[in-house]
């Protein structure tokens, strides 16, 4: 059981950090979202408020509970000040080993004794990341899924030093915010990222080869396999720059079956990252809504 007065720090105000901060604040925990970019923090806070207000409009959340969640959320630009005395830190910064190590090194000395240090990495080594702190046994991978407020799964990733107490407490944290956790031994791509990367890469090969249109490939996975989102839609949501980085890592560690499709490389070089840039496999309007019939077709490649 996690005490309700436990304080959580989420580092990184990007898409995942925003969703994770919402999950903890909405579940009753004082939550501090940290980023060195003030504009990113403002956008993240506005997004979290919008999710809460959307829940009220849909009748899924009482107005007073939404207001309480907003009050539990705060933002800061200074990591040490935010992390001091916190019981859980979740870092969601860029997939760069040096950056992640720097965050953990700075925060580890001021967290509460025995605090859990979690990394949301989907590809990097938890063991390597944990080597940057004095107590690597309390470091664990806590891999959330986007959009966090809808996706119920969290992969808990064990580094070589992660101990049983850290696993038990991390599972309790997941239960406290309504998530189901699975345990994964450290491996390139974990379980879901490995499968998702291969699925998205194969979908892009099919698109490049003219097997079917983007809309039809996505429809096939939604309607034929009950996936909530097609692999090309998901790539646009995640960002093809992120997908390419993961694929290159998996290709280097697991071999040829993860060689990135040339179309992904071409799109990233053109700045077509997906929803966040307004154009990926599909185009998006200023509100982030997909433009109908805008999917790439073989004839356009």
UniProtKB/TrEMBL annotation:
Keywords carried by this UniProt record: NAD, Oxidoreductase
Protein's recorded name: 3-hydroxyacyl-CoA dehydrogenase
Classification via Pfam families: 3HCDH, 3HCDH_N
InterPro entries for the chain: 3-OHacyl-CoA_DH (IPR022694), 3-OHacyl-CoA_DH_NAD-bd (IPR006176), 3HC_DH_C (IPR006108), 6-PGluconate_DH-like_C_sf (IPR008927), 6PGD_dom2 (IPR013328), NAD(P)-bd_dom_sf (IPR036291)
Example GO molecular function: oxidoreductase activity, acting on the CH-OH group of donors, NAD or NADP as acceptor
Domain 3-hydroxyacyl-CoA dehydrogenase NAD binding: 8-186
The 3-hydroxyacyl-CoA dehydrogenase C-terminal domain, residue ranges: 191-284
Residues at which NAD(+) binds: 12-17, 35, 95, 100, 122, 146, 276
NCBIfam families for this protein: PRK09260.1 (NF006722)
Sites marked Important for catalytic activity: 143
Source organism superkingdom: Bacteria
Keyword Oxidoreductase assigned: yes
């Amino acid at each position: 059981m996690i005490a309700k007065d436990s304080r959580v720090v989420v580092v990184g105000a990007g898409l995942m950090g925003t969703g994770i901060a919402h999950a903890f604040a909405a579940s009753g925990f004082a939550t501090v979202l940290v980023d060195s970019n003030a504009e990113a923090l403002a956008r993240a806070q506005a997004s979290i408020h919008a999710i809460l207000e959307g829940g009220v409009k849909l009748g899924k959340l009482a107005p007073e509970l939404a207001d309480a969640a907003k009050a539990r959320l705060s933002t800061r630009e200074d990591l040490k000040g935010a992390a001091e005395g916190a019981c859980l830190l979740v870092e969601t910064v860029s997939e760069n080993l040096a950056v992640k190590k720097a965050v953990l090194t700075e925060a580890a000395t001021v967290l509460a004794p025995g605090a859990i240090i979690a990394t949301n990495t989907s590809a990097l080594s938890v063991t390597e990341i944990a080597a940057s702190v004095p107590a690597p046994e309390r470091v664990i991978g806590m891999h959330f899924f986007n959009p966090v407020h809808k996706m119920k799964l969290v992969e808990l990733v064990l580094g070589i030093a992660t101990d049983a107490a850290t696993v038990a407490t991390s599972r309790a944290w997941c239960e406290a915010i309504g998530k189901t956790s699975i345990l994964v031994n450290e491996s390139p791509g974990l379980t879901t990222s490995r499968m998702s990367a291969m699925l998205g890469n194969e979908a892009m090969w099919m698109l490049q080869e003219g097997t079917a249109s983007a809309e039809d490939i996505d429809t096939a996975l939604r309607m034929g396999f009950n996936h909530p989102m097609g692999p090309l839609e998901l790539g646009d949501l995640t960002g093809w720059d992120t997908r390419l980085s993961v694929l290159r890592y998996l290709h280097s560690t697991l071999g040829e079956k993860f060689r990135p499709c040339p179309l992904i490389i071409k799109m990233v070089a053109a700045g077509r990252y997906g929803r966040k840039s307004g154009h990926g496999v599909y185009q998006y309007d200023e509100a982030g809504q997909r433009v109908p019939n805008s999917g790439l077709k073989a004839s356009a490649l």
